[in-house]
Design brief:
Blueprint: H1 3-37, H2 43-79, H3 94-99, H4 107-116
């Protein structure tokens, strides 16, 4: 992979990381608003507030996992092994990296990993 290509993927990863951090910040602020609104609520409102808070926190968990994968991919760029499958060592297809720039496995190894987790 050329230096220019690595820089392109690094920019993509950093942009997505920034987007996720913005979302997490919004979720945190929304959660605080839900908590503060709970002062004088009836039971139905409290149940809805609790559901909303749980939903917002589940979103942030998904975003945190993606953020971790992005940080790992940025680390691989620094180490010089970005774009190489972490399982089998084959070069990851550029179309895959364009779609999922934080991918750490080639398609075959990703499928194998997903099948094993079922």
């Amino acid at each position: 992979m050329t230096k220019k290509e690595k820089e392109k993927y690094q920019k993509k990863l950093l942009k997505r990381k920034s987007e996720i951090l913005d979302v997490l910040n919004d979720v945190y602020n929304d959660t605080k608003e839900v908590e503060n609104a709970g002062i004088a609520m009836d039971m139905a409102d409290q149940a809805e507030s609790s559901y909303t808070k749980e939903f917002l926190l589940s979103l942030s968990d998904t975003e945190r996992k993606e953020l971790q994968k992005i940080d790992e991919a940025l680390g691989r760029i620094k180490k010089g092994d970005y774009g190489v499958c972490q399982m089998c060592g084959v070069t990851i297809n550029k179309k895959r990296l364009d779609a999922v720039p934080w991918a750490s496995y080639c398609i075959a190894c990703q499928q194998k990993t997903e099948e094993e987790s079922l």
